[in-house]
Write a structure and sequence with these properties.
The chain contains six helices and six strands; from the N terminus they run βαβαβαβαβαβα. By secondary structure, it is of the alpha/beta class. The protein has one domain: HAD superfamily/HAD-like (Rossmann fold, 3-Layer(aba) Sandwich). The two termini are 21 Å apart.
């Protein structure tokens, strides 16, 4: 695997420190977020208040937003309800790093690849998937060390590839 496929275009110290103005200036109009450990803690079932404030602010600035997750959320999930209420596209079972979920999000938002950025906490799903789909990528640190077993394996591989978290 070419290292350029797992090298993010940008890194930020936290979700709140992503340079959203810079992305807008680059022509980015759609933000494709990872869910677990990027927007909310793994298996929490709810968004932190600060995340909701950020998402609403980004929408008010003109960004279209989608959330992609490899998980399947329960029908009565507060996360599902909140995203629907906000008009945010939710792509479940995205099968990241395959590009299909990203392409589905682009289609749902009505934007071209050149107008979208992926924001996530994993090199081997979010960054690799975004790169395979031809998207701009922004890597942020995970919110917590609490993760699925599969993600913990990915973290070991990320460290072997040189990532420091």
């Amino acid at each position: 695997m070419s290292t350029r496929l797992i090298r993010p275009d940008e890194e930020a110290a936290s979700l709140r420190q992503v340079d959203w103005r810079h992305l807008w200036t680059k022509g980015v109009r759609a933000l494709l977020f990872d869910l677990d450990n990027t927007l909310c803690l793994w298996r929490t079932g709810a968004f932190p208040r600060a995340t909701l404030v950020l998402l609403r602010r980004l929408q008010s600035q003109g960004f279209k937003i989608a959330v992609l997750t490899n998980a399947r959320l329960p029908r009565n999930s507060p996360v599902r309800a909140t995203l629907a209420e906000m008009g945010v596209v939710l792509i479940e079972g995205a099968k990241k790093p395959l590009p299909f979920g990203f392409q589905q999000a682009l289609h749902a938002l009505g934007v071209k690849r050149s107008e979208a950025a992926v924001i996530g906490d994993q090199l081997l799903t979010d960054v690799l998937g975004g790169k395979l789909a031809g998207l701009y990528t922004v890597l942020v640190p995970p919110l917590s060390p609490q993760e699925a077993r599969r993600t913990k394996v990915n973290r070991v591989l990320e460290r072997l590839l040189g990532r420091r978290v």
